[in-house]
Input
Amino acid sequence: MSITIHQSISIYMIKIGAITNSSVLQIGSTGSIQAQSDIYNTGGYTEPAEEAVPLGQQPPPMIPLSQSAQ
Output
């Protein structure tokens, strides 16, 4: 089935509160949206990252304290 849609869209102002990684902003019509996920090594890493520590098992953060002048 072939459908032809002629449309004219005028947007004078648009405010978008938030868009996340998997959001789709569509203005107008489309026949289909194909899911696409691309992964890029933008940091140039060559080794896997270290294993994450599960929440609740993390040691408290170490905060260096400066010595006060006396």
The chain has a mean pLDDT of 80. The two ends are 85 Å apart (CA to CA). DSSP finds no helices and no strands in the chain. The CA atoms of residues 12 and 69 lie 61 Å apart.
